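Q: I'm writing up a methods section and want to include an example of the input and output format. Could you take the sequence below and give the corresponding predicted structure tokens, formatted cleanly so I can copy it straight into the document?
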Amino acid sequence: MTHYFRGSVLPCILTFFIFHADIAFSESQEHGRVNMQGSIIETPCAIATADREQTINMGAVTMGEIIHNGQGPVHKFSLQLVNCVLQPNNPEQKDWAWFVTTFDGPVQDGVFSVNGASGIGLEIADAAGHVAMPGQPMPGMALTAGEQQLDYTLRLTGNHHRLEAGEYHTVLRFKVDYF
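A: Here is the clean output for your methods example:
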């Protein structure tokens, strides 16, 4: 008799726990939504993910160095073009052969301006020594298949205003156009 009691009660208890566990899970489930957006563009190259947003620490520069030299020390940075394919998907479009890089940001007296200090700006130059003019494309360069590293320098330069010490910062943008 004891054996029969355990055999018939246990399935009832298990059924009860399974039924209530199912209700508990369905009541505690939450729903969400993920919004995504983007675009697919035809461009011969991509910019390496690590190079899309860079922070360059310019360090401390003395006012005497800016006054005496007219500029601060050079800081190097690079942009890496990756997965470059020179033939577009559209057979009627000619192959990509050149690119130009444009740097843009706040400007004062023809140089990129900074916030927090005065009398200085930023100068960007490419490996050939061409100085970037804010918002203007730099000289065109030949595009190669695969990967290509674009080397630049950045330095503080005087902007013909009264020099005042202070911590400074700015945000500059760049774009690469292909043709």
